[in-house]
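As described in the Methods, two query proteins were run sequentially through the folding procedure within a single session, without resetting any intermediate state between them. The first query and its resulting structure tokens are shown here.
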Amino acid sequence: VSAGLDLPGRFLFATLTLMTLIAILVFIEEAVYIYRKIPSSKRSIIIWINAAAPVISTTSCIGMWVPRSTMFTDFTAGIFFAIVIHKFLMMMIKECGGQKVLLRRFENGRFTISTGPCCCCCLCLPRVPITRQTLFWLKLGTFQFAVLRPVLIFLSIVLWTNGNYVLNNLSPKGPALWISCFIGALTLFALWAVGIMFRKVRILLKCKNIIPKFALYQFIVILNHLQTTIINIFASQKIIPCAPPLSSRARGSYIAQQLLIMEMFLITVISRVVYRRKYHDLEPPECVAEEPGDEKQTP
């Protein structure tokens, strides 16, 4: 790739590569800090979540230098982030003190399931009691994504090596459309489960900086999925013009990767600040007030 670049292009590639290396070093330093300062019950979960932005930045950098590897790098980032979504839900439960303590804190509380991205417009949906069973279904909502998305991506790679899977061929007769729709549905259910949990614990975990953490997580979802999809659609429709020797799709891929490197670099730096803030300990379950609209807890 570098042989076909002019001087500004080489400078851009060098700068983005340096940003990726800095993001990796920032994450390594943060992982060492977490390993030393955070209790072992939360340590691995927080390291996984902090690794999302550097991993996506690294895969984008590899895809930028080696264009033929783009499919594999995108799949790697997709698999990793599927696991991170499940880890984020588990982190919220851990920050509440674990499942048993969470059930005691919200003994008479209810989950509001009319939330995004699936049911934000369905305000008539009933509020669900917080029990072991409902917690199990929320955890299953993210766990299924962490398991099924790697399986579907592996199936896509197998079909691609056989010539049956063409990413830009979205005809009903091809497998790309059906696999993409199925992955999209699984993604929505996983994000819905995280949204339901966040809506319930955001007030309780405000002292744990859960709101900026959730905002960073949402930015990664939007930038890694929605932004990349929009750019790829523009490229496939020739809205992004070709620039020889790069076709429209190749330019779209380059633009998406370069934007992700810069965005994930910023998120990595901000995450280091957010996850290093001093937290206030949660009050005992008997002293915690419920969210407005819920019944008061019984000590």
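Immediately afterward, the second query was submitted; its sequence and tokens are:
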Amino acid sequence: QPPAPTGEAHIPPLLGVAPLGPVALSKEQQIQHQSLEAAFYHMPHPSDSERLRHYLPRSPYMTPPYYPQSVPLASDSLDFFHRLSTETLFFIFYYLEGTKAQYLAAKALKKQSWRFHTKYMMWFQRHEEPKTITEEYEQGTYIYFDYEKWGQRKKEGFTFEYRFLEDRDLN
């Protein structure tokens, strides 16, 4: 015998919020959906909200006029950083932490085939083609920058595990 009517509607869970079945979206709703989807895939990074830090000297000192009195033009461009020496780029990377200069120095180092190792917090570069390459690591001779002794060193038979490779593309 059928159940007695109670005045309540029973909606199967599969129909969810559209009890009459799927409804085609209007053109405006499709555009809104595409915009939301694009926003989801291009979400801002926490660093996008950081303010630029301008250099303020701690103890300003009057210098003779033949010394530069202002920051060189375009010194915050990638082209400027590409012209700097490797050692200068390492100095900027390790001593100007959290600045745009550190970011640009890292980008310039990556352009010179240096790779950052997140476990050792050091930059590595292949000295020669690795002897062993697998999906998880490569093994061979590498040059690395030792920031404690401030110089480049050679490491033979080093295993560079890809899980410690900082491989974000710096756009």
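The two ends are 69 Å apart (CA to CA). We note this only descriptively and draw no conclusion about the first query from it.
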